[in-house]
Amino acid sequence: MIDWNFAVQTGTRLVRPGPQIGQDEARAVVTELRELSRLAQGHVREFTGMDAELNPGPATIVDRPGWIKANVDGFRVVLEPLMDRLAERRPASPFGGPGGVVVQALGARVTGVQVGAILAYMASRVLGQYELFLPPDPSGRTPTGRLTLVAPNIVQIENDLGVHTRDFRLWVCLHEETHRAQFTGVPWLRAYVQEQMTEFLLASDLDPGAMLDRMREAAEAIADAVRGGESSLIDAIQSPEQRVILDRLTAVMTLVEGHGDFVMDAVGPEVVPSVKEIRARFQGRRDGGSRLDKTIRRLLGIDLKMKQYAEGSKFVRRVVAEVGMDGFNKVWASAESLPTIDEIQEPTAWIARVVGTRSLGPAAEADQA
């Protein structure tokens, strides 16, 4: 269904080159990012109180083509088994057997081009990520996870913003190392996210009439986004069952992204002295961009991710202020402890349901002092 090799070729051909720097400077950037990722591990562990992986390796540093390849490898780990199951549901094609070999090959290359083009756009924007499904462990049964930082993008943005380079790099590492702490310190979280992704994909409505409706809605979403509306392709192509599942996925990803944003800002100015300046300038960049860029961001759901950062961070701040870090960390007890979409908007509802007896957090204690 997807020609993954063609996706990599397309993405690496289309991706824009990173900032032009010398080899010595590039090596220095890689060395510092590895050192700062290790430093951030300790700060995250101490601040969050999470029982994360002890002595994990430093972050893997990649360029833009390397990020594209890593993401395609991750997609293959997760999606190929699901695509085989989806293909079995499809009706037989009149073009030479189930699905038609020629038609399938052509469709796979077209989809590969689409995936590659999206990854080429994303590869110049992503600063880092915790790759849940890479690399597979030696047994081949479960992935071990890997933290990746995209060096050219970090250098590009710190130059564009005019911020202190070491502070900015550590600030980025704090966010990404928080994700590593989440997925290594919470044993069930990776499996939960993968399960929701699997359910979402298997809930695809392959009925021809329904698919035609989805295509019409996608076309309308594109037209609306171009006009400056709020539509996204993600919303347009969902079945009703997928919308329910996506609400659960959105809630958990809003939590983990918001938690990462909260930690990167809250660790303190003694760790990142210019954190307030960095946040202000970085937020201005998030909110900016050309009309075309904003349209693409809406269509691909990137604006939704930015909204997740803000809403998730607000949720975490409120909960920590009310019940302290120990109270907040009850969110990691089980899948049932995760906030719903509605609870993200109303943290006191989550506190009442999960924490129960209200304890005083730092902000409440300060108010009473």
TrEMBL record:
Pfam families tied to this protein: Zincin_2 (PF10103)
InterPro entries tied to this protein: CHP03883_F420-assoc, Zinicin_2, Zinicin_2_N
Superkingdom of the source species: Bacteria
The protein, known as: Coenzyme F420 biosynthesis-associated protein
Originating organism: Actinomadura craniellae
Taxonomy of the source species: Bacteria, Bacillati, Actinomycetota, Actinomycetes, Streptosporangiales
